[in-house]
Each structure stands twice: as structure tokens, then as C-alpha cells.
Amino acid sequence: MSTEDSFNIRVSRALVAQALSAEQTLEKTEIGVLDAARLVKELSELGRTKKLNQLRRIFRIGVDAFSREHRTPTFCVAFTHFLAAKSHLRARSLCDYRQMYGAILKKFPELFSQKIHTFTSPKCGEILDNVFQTSRQRHKARAILHSFFGYCVRHGWCAENPVAAIDSPILKEREITPLSLAEIAAIFRAARGLGLGACVPAIALMLFAGIRPREVERLCWSDIDWEEKVISILPTHSKTGGSRHVNIFPVLEKILRERRRDFSDPICPQNWRRKWKRIRKAAGWCFPEKPWQQDVLRHTFASYHLKFFKNLPQLQCEMGHASLRLLRTRYLSMRGVTLAAAEIFWRGEGIF
């Protein structure tokens, strides 16, 4: 036997051994050696590579995607789990989440049963653009959707967050004109005229302490330190989750002492929101002729405070802002606020 024949025999035996080994590897599957070879060829053409490690990576990615496709829930089921995970949040926040979810399904009912892993950045962008009318609404909805898909990624329901590639809309801050002294006096006059004097302390806390409406609703008389002359905003009461002390200026102290109630009573009386709406209407605010601007009392406090005290860092602490940027860009408006008006405001002359 020639050397060449001997070499060919050894090569043939090696090929046969490899074929048998391949068959043994595949014997517990329904894939034959020829089918496996064809699959490898297709993968190499798909990935434009002949390197085994790269082919294995392509295969693993495909397996992960296939597994995710079968275990990922629908938009409806995933959002139900998301709400349950966020049950520790305040009722108002959960209400915002549900309202966003309902608005999306009203416009895109087919999303109810769509699998989470099929959502793409263009689709999420389409949802935000078509469901929410203003940049502020889209900004808020994007934040909620980003949190929701982040939750889905952590649970392995989708590979990446499709909202991450969507830029947050630029918010154009609209100027909120502070109330004039005459408008402020009209509010307190309306409260007295309607026999709703119990509402005056809550109104005064928003106007003369800059406390947010939702924060006021959570306050009790026990949160007032008469000796230190401060109001304690607890983390559970605060919008931002932080605590702060708000100073009680003389004009506010006079109102609170005249109307103070039992230690454990809430500041706001029963049916507060309905009564507060009645007071505003009686004072001249009626939609659409003269709509009430959200947080206008807080804005009024900020503008008159700066005009009189001229102390931005102190005002920042009173307002509970992490930085001065929001204070400067959104809350401060000197339109119609003179030093003389600010002096009258902080003395309370002619207001009550």
C-alpha cells in the first residue's frame, strides 16, 4: 500500500469518526447531521462570518429572543404587575399611571394584547405623539413609560427599554402672573361671605408659606411648632419625598392662631376641595372667562417673598426646591409686584 493510500484511509476513518460523533451529539434531537450543517451555513450567511465563536453568539442571541417571545406577557398583564409593584406610591401618582394607561388603550386598543417584547422606539414615539396633546403631558407620559419598560427589562420581558431612545420633550415654561392685592382680598372676602372660614388656614398656608396644595391637604395642626414658628413638612407629606421647615411669618401666624383647632385635626376641613372651588368661583375665577392657574398661590408667595426679602437661597429652602433653576425659570414673576405692594402683602393690610 502506498503512502498516499494510507493517508487517504486515515483521513476517511477520521471523517467517519467525526460523522459518528456528530450523530451521537444530535441523536436526542430531531435534527440530522445534514440539517445541522445546513443550519450552520445559514447562520454563517446571516452573520457574514465563518468564525465559530461568533456563530455561537448569534445562536445564543436567537435562543434568548425565542425564549423571551414565549415568556413575555402582554401590555395589559405587564402593566398590572407594574402597578402592583408601585403600590407603595401615593394615590395621586397611581392615579396618574392608570390615567396614562387608559388614555393609551383608548387611542390604541390593539395594544391591550400586544406582547411587551414587540414594542419598539418608533411605536412608543407614535403613542406619545398621538395620545398626549401638550409637551408637558408627553413629558410626564414618557417618564411613566420609561419606568414601566425599565421594570419589564428587569424582569426579562424585553431586551431593552424602547423609551430610552426617545428624547424628552422640551418644556416651555409659561409665566404665571402672581395675584394682585385686590385678588387676594377677594379670595378671603369670598370665604367669609360663604361662611367657609374653616378654609382660611389652608388658603393662608399656600399663600403666605408657599406650601403645595397636596402638601396642605396632608397637614395637621400638630405639624405646627408655635414655639419655633415653623411648619414641618414631613417626607410622607412632601411632593419630593424630603422634609423641610417652612417659616411662619407674622401675617400667617395671626391667621393660624385665630383659627387653630385641636392638635390632631387636619388643617383642611371636610370636603375641602369642593369648598375651595366654591370660594374661587365666588371670588371671580370661573372657567373659561377667568380660569384658575394651578399653584398660583405658591407662585404669588415666591414673587412677593423675593421682592420683599431679596433672598433667593432662603426662598429656595422655603419652597423645598433642590436648585434655584426651577425657582428662577418657573416660579418667579415680578409682573405687577412693587415693593410697596410686597410690604402690604406681608403686613396683611386690607387683605382680610
Q: How are the secondary structure elements laid out?
A:
Blueprint: H1 3-26, H2 33-47, H3 52-71, H4 75-85, H5 91-107, H6 121-131, H7 135-154, H8 181-193, H9 200-208, H10 213-218, E1 224-225, E2 230-233, E3 244-247, H11 250-259, H12 272-282, H13 296-309, H14 312-319, H15 324-331, H16 339-347
Antiparallel strand pairs: 1-2, 2-3
Helix pairs in contact: 2-3, 9-11, 9-13, 13-16
CATH class of the largest domain: Mainly Alpha
* Tally of DSSP β-strands: 3
Low-confidence stretches: none
Biggest sheet character: 3 strands, antiparallel
Q: State the shape.
A: elongated
- Mean of pLDDT: 82
CA-CA gap between termini: 121 Å
Structural class: mainly alpha
Oligomer: single chain
Number of helices: 16
The order of strands across the largest sheet is 1-2-3
- Number of domains in the coordinates? 3
CATH architecture of the largest domain: Orthogonal Bundle
What fold name stands as the CATH topology of the largest domain? Answer: hpI Integrase, Chain A
Characterize the structure shown.
The protein has 352 residues and is mainly α. It folds into 3 domains: 69 residues, no CATH class; 80 residues, DNA polymerase, domain 1; 167 residues, hpI Integrase, Chain A, CATH 1.10.443.10. It has 16 helices and 3 strands. A 3-stranded antiparallel β-sheet has the order 1-2-3. Strand 1 and strand 2 form a beta hairpin. It is elongated, with a radius of gyration of 33 Å. It starts with a helix and ends in a 5-residue tail after the last helix.
